[in-house]
Hints:
Elements: E1 2-7, H1 12-22, E2 27-34, E3 52-56, E4 68-73, H2 80-85, H3 87-104, E5 105-116, H4 143-163, E6 166-172, E7 175-176, H5 187-196, E8 201-204, E9 210-212, E10 214-215, H6 216-229, E11 238-240, E12 245-247, H7 248-258, E13 264-267, H8 282-287, H9 297-309, H10 342-346
Helix pairs in contact: 1-6, 3-4, 5-7, 5-9, 7-9
Bound molecules: uridine-5'-diphosphate (UDP).
Amino acid sequence: MTKVLIAGGAGFIGSHLVDRLLARRDISQLVVVDNLWTGTKSNLQHISDNRLEFRQADVEAVDASGQYDEIYNLASPASPPWYMAEPMRTISANVIGTMRLIAALRPGGLLCFTSTSEVYGDPLVSPQPETYRGSVDCTGPRSSYDESKRCAEAMLFEARRTRGIRIRVVRLFNVFGPRTRPDDGRAVSNFITQGLAGKPITVFGDGRQSRSWGYVDDIVHGLERFFWLDGGDYPGPLNVGNDREVPVVDVAHFVRKRFPHCAIQHLPPVPQDPTNRRPDLTLANQVIPGWTCHVPYEEGVDRTIGWFRGLQPAAPAPRMRVPVAANDPDDAPSAPRRQGRPTSVATDPWN
Ligand code: UDP
């Protein structure tokens, strides 16, 4: 029987992967390690399966005695305001955490890692194939996330080369859907929580920057196909995302149709916000043939609105990270903010 560890299993994507792992009958024990930095226990509360064990701990503190047959590493914040607020902790989770998980793997075990399309930086090539080496600023505001993911990829491929460990590395493009934190700070969840609170929908810059918006069910299906169903021995990296590229402002206007009383408010552009992002899925079509994103963002947004509406306790006004009016105290941000906005720098001891 298979003993599995998932780091970051109480997070947005991690908890969906837990659901898929528990559908496997060969797994005898599933240990979720999560420090609840961005994850929440409520993401797992629907599960009653005595194979599941939850341990609240940092990924860097995982028992490294080489006992797990399979390890899934999703232990990292992925939302820019969250990782920008704690860059050293983000680097540690990805770099030290991945190093620790390599040591926690039994000989012959499999380590799966969710990397990111951020390894492509602000891409000069579109769509981005896995062979594109990217355009990342290693001292820029997104570097803690981008470079620590790149370093974790490097570590895994070197461990494969020098120690023969089995790996699967996925590069995720933008993902949205149920179990995103209301204060997560990414575009779709911001727009929806703003709409539900009757507040302006905030678009950074002119909103012409584009992303590929993958609904979480489609993306997690891609993960299980690659990680354990039929990925073969291909180590990756493998792009997993929706290859329909849509400007941010279009998504904002779509969400506004559901909340017509809300205005669209343009705020200053975010420093080094990537201008475009779209996966080249040629390799995915070979490694996991037939897999594709079925849920268009419009339907995904509607499903996500439904999920946010059902959150308990009912609809407290979300505390957004972006001030929508300088003199409105209700709009003072509490969640981490983007680099370049005053308080994130002032309160960060590393700066
Ligand atoms: N964005 C926006 N308004 C928001 C949140 C995000 O216009 O309230 C933009 C952001 O500047 C970026 C895009 O939406 O261009 C996607 O941002 P997100 O934080 O979701 O993910 P990213 O791809 O930047 O990691």
